Amino acid sequence: MTTTSHIQDALQTVYEKYKDVHDGEVATYIPELAKAKPDDFGICLATVDGQVFSVGDWQQEFTIQSICKPFAFLMALEECGREAVLQKVCVEPSGDAFNSIELEPKTMRPFNPMINAGAIAIASMIKKSSREEGVQAYVDKMQMAAGRTLDFDDAVLASETATGNRNRAIAYLMLNFGIIDAAVDHALHQYFSQCSLLVNCADLAMMAATLANMGINPVTRNQVFELEYVKDVLAVMFTCGLYDYAGEWAYRVGLPAKSGVGGGIIAVVNRQLGIAVYSPRLDPKGNSVRGIGVCKELALHLGLHAFEFTNVGSSFMQWLSAD
Ligand code: GLU
């Protein structure tokens, strides 16, 4: 058996193992998300040398939701620099739900950029003078990371804009404490738009592989993100990427990751590969049930945990190049 077919077989095996798992519920708090087909299931793995392995409904598009957060955080670091960003957002795990209405009590900054409060503060930083320009700058980056043209789900954007009062409350709380400026609706439009980007598993795997590959898209070879800030984002994904499951995730899977309520999840194996799973049935913490299962399984069977004793940083690539 060749090594590449071993990887394809590993994806197929984990797909077969989880395809009959029907636990969890599709998110409904944004009404339009309730239309997702609950049993859709796709997995994709992209390596830093540009190989892509997929199984199931990997072409099915869905909204990126919170998986936009690490990429928007990267944009803010690139545009404003580390210190300016850290003045507005901490990098501490909150241990609370993604939409919790709370700020760090001493500085009144949001706990981290991976929860809604932090992501709205980041959106406020990267918005431009016109709404269109800020959203376009984000799309341009995401298209470069995916390596293809991407669209928005306008219905999800309208649905979230109409019902996102909890996020509006968080934004006004941050306005009160001087974390965001007075253009609250503008910042929320930036944030809601970021969440409404349509992607499939291959797009997300390529975005994750771009993070793994020092900010360079493994296929187009374009430098999408500044190398200097990639490690900042991976560190925060490692400690805060899975909402209030982040600690257990780091323990069990051991990879920087981000999940979204649309049912997507990405994981990054630094300098090696990106993984993406789509399955919209969520657990009570808002993470894809199958997505978590698949990542746990792949981390175990491919030896991907950051502190795995067999993972010497390039073991997976050596394995691949043994073909
Ligand atoms: N747009 C969603 C919200 O702010 C994103 C949440 C998520 O994926 O965690 O409610």
Helix-strand blueprint:
Elements: H1 3-18, E1 42-47, E2 52-56, E3 62-63, H2 68-80, H3 82-88, H4 116-126, H5 131-146, H6 154-163, H7 165-176, H8 184-195, E4 198-199, H9 201-212, H10 227-240, H11 246-252, E5 257-259, E6 264-269, E7 273-278, H12 289-302, H13 315-321
Antiparallel strand pairs: 1-2, 1-7, 3-4, 5-6, 6-7
Bound molecules: glutamic acid.
Q: How would you describe this structure to a colleague?
A:
This protein has helices spanning 3-18, 68-80, 82-88, 116-126, 131-146, 154-163, 165-176, 184-195, 201-212, 227-240, 246-252, 289-302, 315-321; strands at 42-47, 52-56, 62-63, 198-199, 257-259, 264-269, 273-278. The longest helix has 16 residues, at 3-18. The strands form 2 sheets. A 5-stranded antiparallel β-sheet has the order 2-1-7-6-5. Strands 3-4 form a two-stranded antiparallel sheet. The chain folds into 2 domains: 3-62 and 198-321, 3-Layer(aba) Sandwich (Beta-lactamase), CATH 3.40.710.10; 66-195, Beta-lactamase (3-Layer(aba) Sandwich). It is α+β, with helices and mostly antiparallel strands. It is globular, with a radius of gyration of 18 Å. It contains 13 helices and 7 strands. Helix 2 crosses helix 10. Bound molecules: glutamic acid. The site of glutamic acid has 11 residues, from loops. Glutamic acid is lined by residues 65-66, 98-99, 116, 160, 167, 195, 260-261, 286.
Total separate domains: 2
Roughly how much helix do the residues carry, as a percent range?
A: 40-55%
The CATH architecture of the largest domain can be named as 3-Layer(aba) Sandwich
Number of strands: 7
Strand content: 5-15%
What are the segments in which pLDDT stays under 50 over at least 5 consecutive residues? none
Bound molecules: glutamic acid
Strand order of the largest sheet: 2-1-7-6-5
The average pLDDT score comes to: 95
